[in-house]
Write a structure and sequence with these properties.
This protein is of the alpha+beta class and 305 residues long. Helix content is 32%, strand content 27%. An eight-stranded mixed sheet has the order 1-2-3-4-8-7-6-5, with helices on both faces. Strands 12-11-10-9-13 form a five-stranded antiparallel sheet, with no helix packed on it. Helix 6 crosses helix 9 and helix 6 crosses helix 10. It binds biotin. The site of biotin has 21 residues, from helix 5, strand 4, strand 7 and strand 8. The site of biotin (BTN) has 21 residues, from helix 5, strand 4, strand 7 and strand 8.
Length: 305
């Protein structure tokens, strides 16, 4: 039975929860070898050979794992990061069945989007995670500019917007050991070759896609390649030069600064505030109605004007 499932897994290139639970008694290193092996296949739309062709990076995307379907690329990336893969490894899937959004939300990931996770070993502490997310937002915005979207903006902390609608979300997670970060998993979801009516009704008003904005379908592999190159430039910048220039680039594209927002921090009551800017640690700096200043490290802000 186990062999049958493993063969099916290899044939379909799918890592669904059902198949994983059927083979859960398998040795972990054997399982990680299977996960790695099936990730080396080509899928119908995502072709590692096309992404790698003339990919101008030193380490980002030099090792690619591509799947037809996974629960979440972040979950697979975490698993691989604990089972010996190199810095800059990228996990991509055509579909996700249990993709994760921020604040425990679900993320819609039908066929046609770009769903990927980068495994990075950046040697940073927890305080740098928000900055890595902001830096990734800048890399996505630059990528969109390269494929023809000139007016993308970044809504704090990590939503990429076009004409006031969300086209991309970023979820950064840490893999830690003894309270130190071993790897950072940077999950990026871009609504690329999708129609807005493919999303649930309640999301349609606030969502857009590259296909809708550009009026045509684009090449997913080229989009991924461009993003990986932009990401490496940014990653080199924050590793060797710090975050100041990245924050400048972020501020230039900010959708949030200068707006009245409702701040929703975890474990705190909601309040309205005016957004003044973004601090050097990546926090949003807001002025409350009573004139006091506040730094918002995590949470969400809902734009009110
Ligand atoms: C958000 O809520 O805005 C963050 C969404 C992040 C979605 C991406 S898609 C690829 C990666 N895998 C996941 O499960 N989530 C991220």
């Amino acid at each position: 039975m186990q062999n049958e499932i493993i063969n099916l897994l290899k044939k379909e290139n799918k890592l669904s929860d059902e198949t994983i639970s059927e083979i859960k008694d398998i040795d972990l290193s054997d399982f990680s070898n299977i996960v790695k092996e099936i990730g080396k296949n080509e899928t119908e739309y995502i072709k590692a050979s096309e992404i790698s062709k003339e990919l101008n990076t030193k380490y980002i995307g030099k090792s690619l794992y591509v799947y037809n379907e996974v629960s979440s690329t972040n979950t697979v990336a975490k698993f691989l990061s604990m089972n010996g893969v190199e810095n800059g490894t990228v996990v991509i899937s055509e579909k996700q069945t249990k993709a994760k959004g921020r604040s425990g939300k679900q993320w819609e990931s039908p066929l046609g989007g770009v769903w990927l996770s980068i495994i990075l070993n950046p040697n940073v502490d927890y305080s740098k995670l928000p900055l890595i997310t902001l830096a990734t937002g800048v890399a996505v915005a630059k990528t969109l500019e390269k494929v023809g979207v000139e007016n993308s903006e970044i809504k704090w902390p990590n939503d990429i917007m076009i004409n006031g609608k969300k086209v991309c979300g970023i979820l950064t997670e840490a893999v830690s050991k003894f309270n130190t970060i071993e790897s950072v998993i940077i999950g990026v979801g871009i609504d690329a070759n999708l129609n807005v009516d493919e999303f649930p009704k309640e999301l349609q008003d606030g969502t857009t896609t590259l296909k809708e904005e550009l009026g045509r379908e684009g090449n997913e592999n080229l989009l991924i390649k461009t993003f990986l190159e932009e990401f490496e430039v940014i990653s080199e910048q924050f590793t060797h030069e710090g975050y100041e220039d990245i924050l400048k680039e972020w501020r230039k594209r900010s959708y949030t600064i200068g707006k009245i927002v409702e701040v929703r921090e975890p474990f705190n009551t909601y309040y309205d505030a005016y957004v003044i800017g973004i601090g050097k640690e990546g926090a949003l700096v807001v002025e409350k109605i009573d004139g006091t200043l506040e730094k918002v490290i995590s949470g969400e802000c809902i734009i009110k004007n």
